[in-house]
Specification:
single chain; 3 strands; globular
Length: 52
């Protein structure tokens, strides 16, 4: 499983953990995260994340 880092604030989306606050289950691959997902810390879109 991979991790994706917000290039603006450094928040890490970990596929192993998901983002339960956003309703994204643990084990959800980045490609399966909805396109309208936003960083929970700074609010930027999915396009501003890069694979770690």
């Amino acid at each position: 499983m991979a991790k994706y880092v917000c290039t603006i604030c450094g928040y890490v989306y970990d596929e192993d953990l998901g983002d339960m606050d956003a309703g994204i289950e643990a084990g959800t691959l980045w490609e399966d995260v909805p396109e309208d997902y936003v960083c929970p810390l700074c609010g930027v879109g999915k396009e501003d994340f890069e694979e770690e």
